[in-house]
Amino acid sequence: MDETGPGGPPPDTDEVDFPAHQAARCGGLAELDGEIARCRACPRLVAWREQVAAHPRAAFRDWEYWGRPVPGFGPSDAALAVVGLAPAAHGGNRTGRMFTGDASGDFLFAALHAVGLASRPTATHRDDGLELYGVRVTAPVHCAPPENKPTPAERATCRPWLAAELELLSPGLRAVVALGAFGWQALLPVLGEAGWPVPRPRPAFGHGAELALPATGRRPALQVLGSYHPSQRNTFTGKLTFDMLVALLTRAAELAGLPRTAPRRP
Ligand code: SF4
Hints:
Elements: H1 18-23, H2 29-37, H3 43-54, E1 80-83, H4 92-95, H5 103-115, E2 135-138, H6 152-169, E3 175-179, H7 180-194, E4 210-213, E5 222-227, H8 232-236, H9 242-256
Parallel strand pairs: 1-2, 1-3, 3-5
Antiparallel strand pairs: 4-5
Helix pairs in contact: 5-9, 6-7
């Protein structure tokens, strides 16, 4: 990586401009993922993720928690991106892989498998062999926040990572699913900054909401879909059922041009 630049030496990993400085310099997703994983730009989230890692839940006391930012997961030529909220304290923050090891991820990966976008319906740890086909799962905030609530300042600090990830995916990216209102609200400004003509006022979030962003000189056309987040609050109450999520992901896969496969049950 280039260690010099017009603004002088690169910031330390714990400086607030580390993401903005480093993200745009990454030439590929592997490099970006490595830079994300060493970010310490949000003091409150760094303290939280490390405190949680130092005090595992009883069920996970044999685990060595990841305790760092969790990069996106999936192939670098994905045509479909799924954008969530942030890693869970004892999920992604434990396993080091997005949506892996928590109930939301169990629901999401089972649905991706049912649509033919994942090699298996379960995700338990980084080396479990799970592969995603044509889809990349990521989040606008890469560190587990207390009570799953990042502050506006933390969201803004982390935004360059998602912007760079979508930029690197953009040659082949055709559709994005935003999970929950937070994912939707976090995603649209990033897409606007990346060059897609996002209308103002920004369209409201809803399950099944679709936003077609036309191609511009720099970008191919992109379809944005809203889905309720597969949190237990939504899945336990039936607000989001498995069939609803499968139907939405099937629609997203079609819009992304991904091959159709026979429905599979977990
Ligand atoms: S939330 Fe994002 S910007 Fe903040 S420390 Fe984690 S990776 Fe860095």
